[in-house]
Design brief:
- By secondary structure, the protein is α+β, with helices and mostly antiparallel strands.
- The protein has 2 domains: about 5-155, Ribosomal Protein S5, domain 2 (2-Layer Sandwich), CATH 3.30.230.10; about 165-280, Alpha-Beta Plaits.
- About 35% of the residues lie in helices and about 30% in strands.
- The chain has 9 helices and 11 strands.
- Strands 1, 2, 3, 4, 5, 6 and 8 form a 7-stranded mixed β-sheet that branches.
- β9 and β10 form a beta hairpin.
- α1 runs parallel beside α2 (about 100-115).
């Protein structure tokens, strides 16, 4: 058995997000284009006779609600007797719209599979991931992908060229239920459906069309939360070619033409409440190349 598995748990941004309306199961039907970026948490997974989890940065989250713990316990049910000591080191802000918890869950599944040396059929792995959260299946492969249904049905799209990104977390979280409640009053599903397919067609054709990024939550979240609006406007004022909310918030991101301009915008931020992350988009092959670190 491997002595230690190090897994990088990458964040995501939403290049496009259309909300089509409530579903009978209580969720919302969405269409979204997801993109991994190289901002990441780290999981260190070591052999143990029991299942243990230590979180640096999530001490206030009950164990039963921690997605790493839920992923580990669900996988262990299928391989009784397996154990691991997992250490999660957080960098992606919690409740930021960057998919940190979902990414952690997928990283835990992939890391434990490697540590335990078990063979989990792809269909079973996807089912385990989908049962943990809507975004978790996306993080099994990363890159650029279309998410439909709750976002848990994932279809690879042509990867973007590497882009320079600046992400700002404005120091506050927005409950997902609150964002959807605000949006439900302003839904125009047909227009959103048309926009998402147009965006996907441009990606399929190899067009870099960052001016076409959109997010239906932009209609309501920045207006209701001044800190989000100010962070997005900051990016535009400091040279972003496009700036947008990620998921239902609260983080915003902007694309920059050069790494130097992205770093200049990042260094211009003076607000103590804001956390800023210069990053790059991460293609599917790069995701797999960087997912696992060297074992000890």
């Amino acid at each position: 058995m491997t002595s230690c598995v190090l897994v990088r748990s990458f964040a995501k941004i939403n290049l496009a997000l259309a909300v089509l309306g409530p579903r009978e199961d209580g969720y919302h039907e969405i269409r979204t284009v997801l993109q991994t970026i190289d901002l990441h948490d780290i999981l260190e997974i070591r052999p143990s006779s029991a299942l243990e989890l230590e979180c640096e940065g999530l001490e206030d989250v009950p164990l039963a609600e921690n997605l790493v713990w839920r992923a580990a316990t669900r996988l262990r049910r299928e391989y009784p007797g397996a154990g691991a000591r997992i250490t999660l080191r957080k960098k992606i802000p919690r409740g930021s719209g960057l998919g940190g918890g979902s990414s952690n869950a997928a990283a835990a599944l992939l890391g434990l599979i490697r540590l335990w040396g078990v063979d989990v059929p792809p269909a079973r792995l996807r089912a385990l991931a989908a049962g943990l959260g809507a975004d978790v299946p996306f993080f099994l492969s990363g890159g650029t992908a279309l998410g439909i249904g709750r976002g848990d049905e994932v279809y690879p799209l042509p990867d973007l060229p590497t882009c320079n990104v600046v992400v700002i977390y404005p120091g506050m979280s927005i409950p997902t239920a609150e964002a959807y409640a605000m949006l439900d009053r302003r839904l125009t599903p047909e227009a959103s459906r048309d926009k998402i397919w147009t965006f996907c067609s441009l990606l399929e054709a190899g067009s870099v069309f960052l001016d076409g990024v959109f997010n239906d939550f932009e209609r309501v979240v920045p207006a209701a939360h001044g800190a989000v609006r100010e962070a997005r406007d900051f990016l535009t004022e400091h040279g972003a070619t496009a700036a947008l909310l990620s998921g239902s918030g609260s983080s915003v991101f902007g694309f920059f033409r050069t790494e130097e301009s992205a770093l200049a915008a990042s260094s211009a931020i003076e607000r103590e409440a804001w956390r800023v992350f210069p990053a790059k988009t991460l293609c599917r092959s790069g995701y797999f190349q960087r997912l696992f670190g060297p074992s000890e």
